[in-house]
Amino acid sequence: MADPEFQPDPAVVKRSAPTVEDVARAAGVSTATVSRCLNMPAKVGEATRTRVLKVVAELGYSPNFGARALAAKRTRTIGAIVPTMENAIFARGLQAFQEELGLHGYTLLVASSSYSPEREADQIRTLVARGADALLLIGFDRAPAITEWLEARAVPHVIAWAYDADAKALSVGFDNREAMRALASEVFARGHRRVAVLTAPIAQNDRARERLAGVRAAAAEAGLDPDTLRVVETPYSFDNGAAQMDLLMGDTPRPTAVICGNDILAAGAIAAARAKGLRVPGDVSVTGFDDIEIARVLDPLLTTVHVPHRDMGRACARDLIDILENGTHPASTELRTEVMLRGSLGPPAD
Amino acid sequence: MADPEFQPDPAVVKRSAPTVEDVARAAGVSTATVSRCLNMPAKVGEATRTRVLKVVAELGYSPNFGARALAAKRTRTIGAIVPTMENAIFARGLQAFQEELGLHGYTLLVASSSYSPEREADQIRTLVARGADALLLIGFDRAPAITEWLEARAVPHVIAWAYDADAKALSVGFDNREAMRALASEVFARGHRRVAVLTAPIAQNDRARERLAGVRAAAAEAGLDPDTLRVVETPYSFDNGAAQMDLLMGDTPRPTAVICGNDILAAGAIAAARAKGLRVPGDVSVTGFDDIEIARVLDPLLTTVHVPHRDMGRACARDLIDILENGTHPASTELRTEVMLRGSLGPPAD
DNA sequence: TTGTATGCGTTATCAT
DNA sequence: ATGATAACGCATACAA
Questions:
Q1: What does the UniProt keyword field contain (chains A, B) (predicted)?
Q2: Residue A27 in contact with residue A52, Cβ under 8 Å?
């Protein structure tokens, strides 16, 4: 097939991507100058810079990622590990996080843990091995070993969705306990005494645990024994919410209010109540947490806690970039939440 | 502060991460063998392999990402560019995509275009520059220049959310036109004649355009002049859906059915109809597209088109990995959609 | 301001 | 099966 006599045109045979060297040669400068033009343009003479950049554009030069990472020891890539992107709250937070990163020339590496600490630890190591310069993590609950690993490797990281001023790690979030306490207080204030809590498994989830603690605190304030609260744990999903609600509504006597750990569980709960012929809030009140779109679409509208997911994502990005570029040590940020009183919460039936 | 006499313990002063060389020395083999143990364990003797891997574990060695990328010319990282992660359909697809990638040792790099072709082109270049071995893109609509660029650089990529057997590019998706035609046929079959379409801007969005074409096709089949359809374009969001629905419901005569380009617009439309005191479907029918969670929560339940988002994400991952690892040329995959007839669609009021 | 020279940690080719 | 060694392409300390 190939003609042995054939002499390829050098201008055409050049298959591989251009390198600094190609640019340097074409621009009549050294590779160092080319590199400088791209990374510290201020330190290069006006004339040479424009000349070099022109050549860069002409050749369609783009620095080799591996070489750059190897030499510079950084990738301008930041990792995020969330329980799942399917939950709108994490998707929303990630979106804002990514947008802010993009504004500063950083790229987002994503992994999900499916709420498993072991998988999260794996993902942490994987993303760092993949060159992540810093990480966004959700919540504080994780094995000490992986936290120590992060510290030992000096991997900048921020904890989102939770706030703890005393923690060693940087966090950007809100006080899950207090937010839920404020909401639960409204429930008890309306006279509810038989109250159930539908929560995600609290074992390795500090946010869920804190929220439950918030309900207990509100119960105590209302003069109730927190141990009389009916607590049901189930993974976050519409169907689980519905299934557990179905069981709860079979109890005698029936709870007059069900406080859910998030809006998705609450949506499932309301659907299940309806399916059983119960009115909300006439027969049973239901509350959520997060204030995602679904809360404004449910019938009745869902009483819930509004969380500034986008602000959280943005703030995380800013902190991480600040650490990376300026070596600072930002203080943790506490974001404000707000109880949204809507139709799904009413007085008890009896 | 520092004691000038202090002699640091060499075992402690070793700050930087261990390299192949460290492992090789400790295991009494060459760096080549260490590399082989990690990358092609089959080509190494049983005994040496276990010995080397033991040392790897002891030292906590992890190959340097930049060096590996530079030498191997690949990163085992795959990029995805979606319009936005806030839309549950993309979040769900991405989640499945990422899970499948993870199963095969690949990591996901994410960017969003905000439905802007220019931003998407930027992101494509950025992700490739960041070392993405392959890309997942949404839909076919993009400037020829960037498509050519992808071809020229031989960047493996898959188009999701759309299917075109004749296109040069690999695609994994469904026939948006036919799916919407099937749904719209149900609407016309119920006798609706004054029908409005609430769609995303169709300018640079082939999915939206195809869906609109599907409605037109169904109208024609029903003996209607497609040009009598009232078409309203608005960016995908609950509030936009509500606002445009509010305007539509002010028309005289009022449309008896509103076909929406996705479930979020439909949710907004139903809320707006309600707010205006109109019953759905009594006064006006509403349909969506996607069949996300919200469709099962709305009152009435939303008639929509079910799309296998997770299957799509998974299939995209498999194809890309197949290309990368085996150099194959997978054929495009057409996925099945299904019309979900639910309460929001009824006969016309008059 | 610009150039020179070296190191970065792997992978892969080619011997052995 | 294993070892020696040459790329890989860039950033940067140091010189000029």
A1: DNA-binding, Transcription, Transcription regulation
A2: yes
CB nearest to B86's CB, from A63, A91, A127: A91
B258, β-bridge pairs: B196, B286
Q: Are B328 and B322 in contact (CB under 8 A)?
A: yes
Residue B107: phi and psi, rounded to 5, are -120, 150
Cα separation, A154 vs A135, in Å, equals 11
Same fold, B75-174+309-337 and B176-307: yes
The mean pLDDT of A141-152, rounded to a whole number, is 93
Nucleotide nearest to A47 (CA to C1'): C1
> If you average pLDDT over every residue of chain A, what do you get?
92
pLDDT at A28 over 50: yes
Q: Does any CB of chain B come closer than 8 Å to the CB of residue A262?
A: no
Q: Is the CB of B348 under 7 A from strand C?
A: no
CB contact under 8 A, A108 and B109: yes
Two structure tokens written together for A20: 């600094």
For chain A, what percent of residues have pLDDT higher than 90? 80
Q: Determine the CATH number of domain B4-70.
A: 1.10.260.40
CATH 3.40.50.2300 fits B176-307, yes or no: yes
If one counts every other C-beta atom within 10 angstroms of the C-beta of residue A291, the result is 24
How far is B219 from chain A, CA to nearest CA, in Å? 30
Dihedral pair phi/psi, residue B339, rounded to 5°? -75, 125
Closest nucleotide C1' to the C-alpha of A72 = D11
Domain extents in chain B: 4-70, 75-174+309-337, 176-307
Q: Per-residue pLDDT tens for A81-99?
A: 999 999 999 999 999 999 9
Interface of B with A in 192-221 (CB under 8 A): none
Q: Using CA atoms, how far apart are residues B285 and B264, in angstroms rounded to an integer?
A: 15
Within 7-36 of chain B, which residues have Cβ less than 7 Å from strand D? 28-33, 36
**Cβ separation B129–A264 shorter than 8 A:** no
Amino acid at A272: A
pLDDT of residue A137: 98
CA gap B146, B123 in Å, rounded: 11
d(CA A349, CA A282): 6
In this prediction the pTM is 0.92
Average pLDDT in chain B: 92
